[in-house]
Specification:
- By secondary structure, this protein is α/β, with parallel strands linked by helices.
- The protein has one domain: 3-Layer(aba) Sandwich (Rossmann fold).
- Helices cover 48% and strands 13% of the residues.
- It has 9 helices and 6 strands.
- The chain has a 6-stranded mixed beta sheet, with helices on both faces.
- 36% of the residues are buried.
- About 10% of the residues have low confidence.
Length: 274
């Protein structure tokens, strides 16, 4: 199937096309005196289907945008090697190879995770965002795009509803919470029910363009159309423990399919748009 005939591809492409002008206007508000659109955009790439699909459609959207406008847009893929396993370096290099196939330059950031202090999940998250935000400032990037999909949003909502006390939410204060302005979907941050479509971390803006309208099924199709092999992280599989990743994997493997079967394949998109 060609990308022009894929609804999933065209939908994802539209989400990126729609944010490109807003990226320029935001940059203009930051007092950057630009006579033309002049942007440097990062895409966080893990090697999985979601981030690779994001890179694919961002690259295509930028190419189309440049043809229509007087624009200079530089795109770079940011790969973080957490060095938590013997295969970490290989996975990062494979992600870099895929970036080359897509036609985007990439940078691998090697980090050290403080497992003893923060644990694997929170430690990796902190190290990843610290490294990316530092890189953004050094390279003067305007934004970083993250590949969270509507499936991720759905999993976040279900997880938080099941853990209202841990999320500092209850029936009496849920109505008072601004659910549209959650800082992130990460387990150890100040939580609301929903992830927001943007996150400010160390004064760096991270955007999630796929969050409300692009599903994991969509990103899988996009990668298949472009013949890009993606990496499925085994740590995202359910295991019999109470870790954050394991609980989200339980939702992903058992609850999400049930919801889609009963309420339709687009249930994650509908809930994500809240």
């Amino acid at each position: 199937m060609k990308y022009e005939k894929s609804k999933s591809y065209q939908n994802a492409l539209g989400t990126i096309t729609n944010i490109l002008p807003s990226v320029y206007f935001d940059a203009e508000k930051n007092n950057k005196k630009l006579s033309n659109v002049n942007l440097k955009i990062g895409v966080a790439v893990s090697g999985g289907r979601d981030s690779l699909a994001l890179l694919i459609v961002t690259k295509r959207a930028i190419n189309s945008y440049i043809k229509k406008h007087n624009a200079t847009i530089e795109l770079v893929a940011i790969i973080v090697n957490h060095n938590l396993s013997s295969s970490s370096e290989k996975i990062a290099e494979e992600a870099k190879e895929n970036c080359s196939k897509i036609g985007v330059k990439s940078e691998i950031l090697n980090v050290t995770v403080n497992v003893e202090k923060d644990g694997y999940e929170a430690g990796a998250r902190t190290a990843r965002y610290d490294a990316m935000s530092e890189y953004v400032k050094l390279q003067n990037l305007d934004y970083v795009l993250l590949g969270h999909t509507s499936d991720d949003q759905f999993e976040t909502v279900i997880f938080h509803l099941a853990n209202l006390n841990k999320a500092n939410l209850n029936k009496s204060n849920m109505n008072k919470a601004n659910l549209n302005k959650a800082n992130s979907g990460d387990a150890n941050l100040d939580l609301h029910l929903f992830m927001n479509d943007s996150l400010l971390y160390n004064d760096v803006i991270f955007k999630r363009p796929f969050l409300s309208s692009v599903s994991r099924q969509d990103t899988t199709e996009i990668c298949k159309i472009e013949l890009i092999d993606f990496y499925d992280d085994p740590t995202n599989k359910y295991s019999d423990d109470d870790s954050y990743n394991s609980m989200r994997s339980l939702i992903r493997e058992h609850i999400t399919p049930g919801f889609k079967k009963v309420f339709g394949e687009d249930v994650c998109n509908r809930i994500a748009k809240h």
